[in-house]
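Appendix B. Extra example for self-study. Work through it before the problem class; the solution is given directly after the inputs so you can check yourself.
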Amino acid sequence: MTTPSFSVYGLATPLLRPGDDVATHLLSSVERSPARNFEAGDVVVVAESALATAEGRVVKLGDIEPSAKALRLAEEYHMDPRHAEVVLRESDRIVGGIPGFLLCMKNGTLLPNAGIDASNAPEGSLVLLPLDPDASAARIRAAIAERSGADVAVIVVDSRTHAMRLGCSGVAIGCSGIPSVIDERGKKDLFGRELEVTKRAVADCIASAAELVMGEAGECVPAAVVRGIGLPVGDYAGVATIDASECLFMGVALHADPSLLVKGDRES
Amino acid sequence: MTTPSFSVYGLATPLLRPGDDVATHLLSSVERSPARNFEAGDVVVVAESALATAEGRVVKLGDIEPSAKALRLAEEYHMDPRHAEVVLRESDRIVGGIPGFLLCMKNGTLLPNAGIDASNAPEGSLVLLPLDPDASAARIRAAIAERSGADVAVIVVDSRTHAMRLGCSGVAIGCSGIPSVIDERGKKDLFGRELEVTKRAVADCIASAAELVMGEAGECVPAAVVRGIGLPVGDYAGVATIDASECLFMGVALHADPSLLVKGDRES
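Solution. Structure tokens for the complete assembly:
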């Protein structure tokens, strides 16, 4: 019996700068890595901050004029008002906050400070999220196919916290070439019955695997290649999202039922 | 320059049954896998459902008498009242729900149906979470060390949904031998400044990597070995948790500020 297995290789690059071509750096980096080259079926993972920097998605704090709302949020949540202003501009909706962070809805996902991070940004600047991570992933995928001949998939990833978890893990924010979520409806469990939970967030799992080699600090390992994962590579595009009304966690905020608090009181 | 890399190997076993010794199955499985044996520094990942079954944490629905509260919750959230009763018993607190699922707090984490799943349980039964996943991880770690001489780490994992993400990814619910979260405080970013987000949930990332080979369906791959990850193996115990008051997502439920809803209305 053969059991599934795969490998993850970090891809080191020079510090990326606005205007850099990401695919060029990846193609050069993979040659210096133990992966040697890109192969058909590989999943190439790129950190959103490096990608956004290369795409010129950098704003200077000195150029930002905070609005009245940004000033109010900044005071309430102890933030730089210019930072709060950029978060406001980049969000579809603000749904809450804790000191230092606003919780935002953006493109159907929930994320702190609209994904805007001062880490790994030049002094006095903020790096925004890539404008269209799915399009970026598709572009890099096409460039790798054209220049190396390898039919790879590309995922753009961010490092994020999750509800009631300490620390960050990987999340896919852009995807091209593999399904981001695999629906196992119809598959049977160990006892031959239909599975209850049928959706596997494979792109998020790959993002977290890649986080283990990419690191958050100044290591200049902004990408990784995942080999042997056995997913079908083809014309899949985008990261599947969930509606807030179907989300159990948003349900806490949107449909909280105080009578359900069976032990103790709500913390406040 | 060497960049980091690692490999993940699935470990296949026969269907585990109450009373089975998990370490025995893992030691036998690894010999049949491409990993060949356990090596010092390996992280061994075990699915909570297989572990809980081996530990006899299986309840028969026919033996359950639903309480009045369980009957009410079952009606409101369209569940089997006996299933709702078991979820109530296994939760520290119920904080909300959507049809089919109650959102529970248990041991400082937030999870649907208290982690109780009818999938991969014998007909008419439910598999509970392992009673003490950290202790289970430590026991398996000690057994592997004693019988193979290899100083490995062990993580017990569950497959869970996250806020506003479609599909399940891996989460560590028990850990022995590596730190579950690595604090990078003091590390510098690409521009030499202190990192803003400093905690990496490495155990969750490893859990998600392992999910990619373990599968949810009847594949009988309830474990994996992660090799080359480069984490320090030693006397670390437990999964670090976060207090609800520090959690940005719980902040939405606990400190929601309707005046912050800058675009559109709350869904309801």
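Self-check: The first helix of chain A runs from residue 22 to 32. If your reasoning did not lead you there, revisit section 3.
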